[in-house]
Automatic annotation (TrEMBL):
Highest taxon of source: Bacteria
Name listed for the protein in its UniProt record: Iron-sulfur cluster assembly protein
Stored Pfam families: Fe-S_biosyn
Family label: Belongs to the HesB/IscA family.
SUPFAM superfamilies, sorted: HesB-like domain (SSF89360)
Length: 130
């Protein structure tokens, strides 16, 4: 009996060069040892959800570990389906500097850009012809 073919699992998140450089700089200034930057989502804000970021001293048991451009990002397991395909960027201008999430699952955002509405990725149904 042959095993069914599985397709490669997509990376949950990628980082731009600017985001990777900024994450490296922020981690380098940490006073404690840091295993990576943990990214998640939480309910809140006027659009319904907000991205969260915090230093992680170690990876959680169910965290998705993403290594991109020499940076380790830990994805909270509750956020994985909301973040699939997301690109994390870092933008700076005269008035602000912030991480920006280019998320294909985002359906809307509030005017200030602090909160978003995100629809989780739906698993593909099993192929009935297999």
């Amino acid at each position: 009996m042959t095993q069914p073919q599985t397709r490669p699992r997509p990376q949950v998140m990628t980082l731009t060069d600017a985001a990777a450089e900024r994450v490296r700089a922020v981690i380098a200034r940490s006073e404690k040892p840091v295993a990576g930057l943990r990214i998640g989502i939480k309910n809140g804000g006027c659009a319904g959800m907000e991205y969260t970021m915090e230093f992680a001293e170690q990876a959680g048991k169910f965290d998705e570990v993403v290594e991109d451009k020499g940076v380790k990002v830990l994805i909270d397991p509750k956020a994985i389906l909301y973040l699939l395909g997301t690109q994390m960027d870092f933008k700076a201008d005269k008035l602000s500097a912030q991480f920006v999430f280019n998320n294909p699952n985002q359906t809307s955002a509030c005017g200030c850009g602090e909160s978003v509405a995100i629809t989780p990725v739906q698993p593909e149904p099993a192929d009935a012809s297999a």
